[in-house]
Amino acid sequence: MAEDLIINTDIDKEAQYKSIIPQITALLEGERDQIANLANVAAALKEQFKWFWVGFYLVKGDELVLGPFQGPVACTRIKKGKGVCGASWQQNEVLVVPDVDLFPGHIACASASRSEIVLPLYRGEEIIGVLDVDSQYLSHFDDIDAKYLKEIVKILNV
Ligand code: SME
Fold this sequence. Notes:
CATH superfamily: GAF domain
Number of strands: 6
Bound molecules: methionine sulfoxide
Helix content: 25-40%
Largest sheet: 6 strands, antiparallel
């Protein structure tokens, strides 16, 4: 496993995903530990995209519990159906929220967060958590993020 990532931020978003995804694949190669892999993926995405917050919530009973992340401290527990994360879990859908203030029930862990994307994380067919990314900019996420973050969640296979 390479320990240093090659981070190029002078290219468009799609090219950045195309640069970081093979590196994430290499990072995960040969390691099956869930926490280790989630932690490294959060760190790699933070390094590449400098997002405000990126991390995982993991399903425990009827709640999501905070997992590995990069960014400011965050809420630790989210009930099914609550907030963007709980809604993504309940609806089994990728949710792109251009303005968090307009999302009913959005959970504001940090007031600086303005837009968000949340994707379910699967083991087989079962949802075992979510990947949550927050930006301090409005309308920061789009179909390109959804497409490539879906690939990343698939590679994770945790
Ligand atoms: N905003 C999320 C809560 C998690 S934090 O953003 C890290 C939500 O509404 O589910």
